[in-house]
Amino acid sequence: MASRAEKIDRFPNKILINVSEIQNLKSPRAEPLNVFLRFEYNDGQFSESGKFDVTDGSPRPVDHVAVLAVNASDPVQIDDLGQKPVLVTLFEAVPKDKKQKEDKSTPIGQAVIDLWPLLKNENQASITAPIHAIPGSYLEAQGEQNQVLLH
Questions:
Q1: Which top-level group of life is the source organism from (predicted)?
Q2: How far apart are CA 114 and CA 117, in angstroms?
Q3: What pLDDT, in 10s, does the model give residues 101-136?
């Protein structure tokens, strides 16, 4: 017989965040830039995209769906939805050296997705989120007129 804990889903509601493409991201070098996205909410990571290459800044399909599990009947979680955004961090995936066991990854930019519209009875929202350069990353040199965007 299954235990009581197995029968109850603590997070029965799912928020789907679909990133369809990234725009204006250019490789600072001649070779393609290998990047990925990491999704965080309330100080915890809940999704990570696969790695993909970008070169010239043209729109690049990403097609990643991040699933954030919440409990809509918990007033604390509902309060958090209105106050805490989803943080999407863009990482450059640096290939590992022969001596290293894992790939290195360097954060180069971040976007913020506000969940407030979901509290106003909207069940779907389409947004374009700018990716802001992390200080010291090469995205700073790219400039505001060529802002990297997530769709």
A1: Eukaryota
A2: 7
A3: 777 899 999 999 999 888 887 777 888 999 999 999
| Domain definitions of the chain by residue range | 10-150
User: How far is residue 26's CA from residue 138's CA, in Å, rounded to a whole number?
Assistant: 10
Euclidean distance between CA atoms 57 and 21, whole angstroms: 11
Count, residues in the chain: 151
Q: Cα–chain-centroid distance for residue 132?
A: 13
What digits encode the pLDDT tens for the residues 1-21? 445 555 556 778 899 999 999
Say if residues 39 and 46 touch (Cβ distance below 8 Å): yes
Q: Enter the pTM of the model.
A: 0.88
CATH fit for domain 10-150, picks 1.10.730.10, 3.30.420.140, 2.60.40.150, 1.20.120.1200: 2.60.40.150
* % of the chain exceeding 70 in pLDDT: 91
